[in-house]
Amino acid sequence: MRRRSGARKRIGRRFVRWRPWVPGHDASRRARDTSRPPLPQGGVSSDADCAPRRPGYADEPPSQPAGLPVTSHKKTPETLRSHRWFGVSDLRSFGHRSRLRQLGYDSADWVGKPVIGIVNTWSDINPCHGHLRARAEDVKRGVLQAGGLPIELPAMSLAEPIVKPSAMLYRNFLAMETEELLRSHPIDGVVLMGGCDKTTPGLLMGAISMGLPAIYVPAGPMLRGHWRGETLGSGSDTWKYWDEKRAGRIGEAEWTEIEGGIARSYGTCMVMGTAATMMAIAEALGFTLPGASSIPAVDASHSRMAAASGRRIVDMVWEDQTPARILSSAAFDNAIKVHMAMGGSTNAIIHLVAMARRAGLTIDMARFDAISREIPVLANVRPSGQWLMEDFYYAGGLKALMGELREALDLSCVGVSGVPLGEALAGARVHRPDIIRTLADPVSRAGATAVLTGNLAPRGCVMKPPAADPRLLKHCGPVLAFEDFNEMAAAIDRDDLAVTPDHVLVLKNAGPKGGPGMPEWGMLPIPKKLVRAGVRDMVRVSDGRMSGTSYGACILHVCPESFVGGPLALVQTGDRLEIDADGRRIHLHVGEEELARRRAAWTPPPPRFERGWGAMYSAHVGQADEGCDFDFLTGTAPTAEPEIH
Ligand code: FES
């Protein structure tokens, strides 16, 4: 039977026509009947509880009703969370209401209406989010259209190029801030606005832990860069032309021109860096409206998507469509598959592990590797491919890519749109098969991310084979080891550095505690004397991360890190180190006896912080395979609602 204009959906005792959101089409109701009768409860089957656990996952939450379409409303005006602040008749609620009136609101603004928090990571110094101040007004427009009360709440912005020593040091800060902003305010549902690298996982982790209905508005990529007829990609072309400058092939004038042409509009990095990867993952998990993550920041569609998200969150509150109803091992598998097909950033592994643990799921590192072997790279986007995110959007965007992956995805998962993924992907089409390739003709058959283990990394490390020189995917060479970044930086451009193209560069103390904050130092610079000789890739090994815009034979996230005494701490210049990407192996050719001797002589470095956030971070942050989350923030243990006295 042909669906004419949407399914019929039960709302209370009535059935209404129901359409999922699609770009350019608005299906939300403009007004809400707040006098409707109480709605039936318990409309969710528990069949999903019996679903077999997926390999690579542990701790499936016992009542995970994933994959079920939204069939009934759960909330009434009296059961809204904000009702405790505004709906009761006591001294405190008088104070809350009088203060809303102080803001110029009247009872018509709040009676019977969900309060929608808009957690906005706009700031004056974050160019990736420069448009989010205006875009929040689009979200508010949508919330008002659908009968909600929008309340904007600013949160830490985490501009990746600006925040030091590493924005990753503050991802958990943003997650805590998001969770506590929502807990302490009279919020019924939330629109999360971010995009620059750590903001996506930070916002989502906090929202998952808080458990209120949440929808994500991705900032979207900036426009393509340009310089003298060349198309420039964020980060990737910075590294490339920096090496050209170091080799003396371009001068200061050219370098300054590139500086002015590589970032031409608001929006996130427009290669397949961490930002584009995490926005796509948010969509694949089900946290955005279908197609939202690919829309360029400055495209008019972005404003329409923001308004539609505002409308949709109001419905999600009434439906009680919480993250717990969206997230499941199936949803995370979908996200990992999309990550691999996008040729996504290695950073995403850490964030996915952290988000899953917030939802009560533990993803084994082996799961990433298994999916990596199964799903080839389809997105022909730099640094693994040729094009940029703006081109990817014109080619059909993430919906089109997920359409190509349809056979590999669990199409029963239900995200914020309220319909199964299979339905949300209806009509998805690839307009440029050279940019979004097929499973039969991928960009690369090697998966986007390989997980290696061995005596150097007993708990794993990662690399991105499609972004490496193929001849280095199997390599054994002498080690040139640096104790920290400063030692490396002081030596790397020296003409007398004893290094050859076969050397393996090793950087220690770049991990979660050692960096601190696991900075993106993993793409160590090629020694200047080798750059001049035309060398553009070498094997580089560290416990740090690398930008998703980076490339090369970089082995990252070595776990446990050297700062806590992981085997990486014992590596010395002159050792031989072997990597085998296909065999998923990394091996330090040093005997057990010698390693034991070095371990006995090793002393832990002094703490990085004596006080403040850094001290709290150092005391509680986990290793890379644990998602670098805080030990007291993972899991699903409930936190009490605030008392109102
Ligand atoms: Fe913000 Fe790359 S610097 S997304």
Main structural class: alpha/beta
The largest pleated sheet is described as: 6 strands, mixed
Q: Can you count the helices?
A: 21
How would the global form be characterised?
globular
Please state the second-level CATH architecture of the domain at 108-223 and 265-424: 3-Layer(aba) Sandwich
Find the CATH topology of the domain at 108-223 and 265-424: Rossmann fold
Number of strands: 18
The CATH class assignment of the domain at 108-223 and 265-424 is: Alpha Beta
Helix proportion range: 25-40%
Main sheet strand line-up: 16-15-14-13-17-18
Instruction: Identify low-pLDDT runs.
Output: 1-53, 60-71
Distance between the first and last residues' Cα: 56 Å
* Percent strand: 5-15%
Compounds present? Answer: FE2/S2 (inorganic) cluster
Q: Estimate the mean pLDDT confidence.
A: 89
Radius of gyration: 25 Å
Write out the CATH superfamily name of the domain at 108-223 and 265-424: Response regulator
Enzyme class: lyase
Keywords: Iron, Iron-sulfur, Lyase, Metal-binding
Domain Dihydroxy-acid/6-phosphogluconate dehydratase N-terminal: 113-423
Protein name: Dihydroxy-acid dehydratase
Describe the structure.
With about 650 residues, this protein is an alpha/beta fold. Among the domains are: about 110-225 and about 265-425, Rossmann fold; about 450-610 and about 615-620, 3-Layer(bba) Sandwich (Glucose Oxidase, domain 1), CATH 3.50.30. About 30% of the residues lie in helices and about 15% in strands. It has 21 helices and 18 strands. It has helices at about 85, 90-100, 105-110, 130-145, 170-185, 200-210, 235-245, 250-260, 275-285, 300-320, 325, 330-340, 345-360, 365-375, 390-395, 395-405, 420-425, 485-490, 530, 590-600, 610-620, and strands at about 5-10, 15-20, 55-60, 115-120, 150-155, 190-195, 215-220, 225, 230, 360-365, 450-455, 455-465, 475-480, 505, 540, 555, 575-580, 585-590. A six-stranded mixed β-sheet has the order 16-15-14-13-17-18. Strands 5-4-6-7 form a four-stranded parallel β-sheet, sandwiched between helices. The protein has a two-stranded antiparallel ribbon with strand order 1-2. Strand 13, helix 18 and strand 14 form a beta-alpha-beta unit. Helix 5 packs parallel to helix 6, helix 6 packs parallel to helix 13 (about 345-360) and helix 12 (about 330-340) packs antiparallel against helix 13. It is globular, with a radius of gyration of 25 Å. The termini are far apart. Residues about 1-55 and about 60-70 have low confidence and may be disordered. FE2/S2 (inorganic) cluster binds near residues 128, 161, 196, 197 and 234.
